[in-house]
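During the second year of the project, the team shifted from modelling isolated chains to modelling whole assemblies. The rationale, set out in the original proposal, was that interfaces cannot be judged from single-chain predictions alone. As a representative example for this report, we include one of the complexes processed in the last quarter. Its constituent sequences, exactly as entered into the pipeline, are reproduced here:
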Amino acid sequence: MTHLGYLLVGWSVSLGCGVLYAMRIAFRGRVLSRQVPADKRRWMQSSDHSNNDY
Amino acid sequence: MKNIATSVDAATTKSRATQILGFVVLFGVLALILLGFFAAPEDDEQRDAVRMIFVHVPSAFLTYAAFSVTAAGSLMWLWKRSRWWDIVAHSAAEIGVIFCGLTLFTGSVWGRPTWNTYWDWGDVRLVTTLILFLMMVGYLALRAAGGEENAVATRAAVVGLLAAVNIPIINRSVEWWANRTLHQRSSLTDGNLEDLTLFTLVVGIVVWVLFFVWAMIHRFRIGWLEHQLRDIELQAAIAGRRAETANDPTGGSLP
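Output from the structure prediction step:
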């Protein structure tokens, strides 16, 4: 295979960044979830989505 | 039967739906590696360097998509003042910056064997993509600098909309400045790709889109948690101030 070095660098950086970002948001989500009461953890309704709140 | 979309894991941002989506993305990446390296044929001119197309073009496609979502979210924030849209805009911007960085990086690495250079300051598409990247890094820096939540959201929304003006310019640059670019015209629409190469490219775009959706769901939930935390801290500060005032015999008035 020609240009294997370039291909390995391009592909591994792309996939590596994806994996690292996925790990980062999973970890950050875990840390933040522990600090917020269970009933406020997820956006589930439109109460915070209306003009009246802001 | 439990609803997979709303099935909540107590102390994480994952749900049944994101777990399934995550596995689909993993299998998609494995399929893309197999197709990209072993099934798709080499190019007559570029030889195996053409296999960079399977990560470069999907990254560029997702850059456009993510920053378009940021622009839509910004517009909706300015119009509706909806926190939901503000968090969507911020989440898409963060993911878009990663895709944009990858577009520049993989394009540069691909450019060395095909154009004999990593970078060309005279190439309009390269320079406009770099400007978009820097504007969106500025967007994230503005967000990270802090301040009153609504004011930050409004400033960021203006930057998000201004940056989005660049998207059609980047996309059309190879036609508008055809003599000032090393880039070829659109690989997807020109019909010059072999069938299996085109199929693999489409698989790459689908896998990247699914990853974007997975990351958006998680990143939105993080944004929502951050918003809730700020709210909790604000409520605690107000309660503390009220308690101080109640205990103050002067009623908190100035001398």
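Chain A has one helix and no strands. Residues 10-37 of chain A form one domain.
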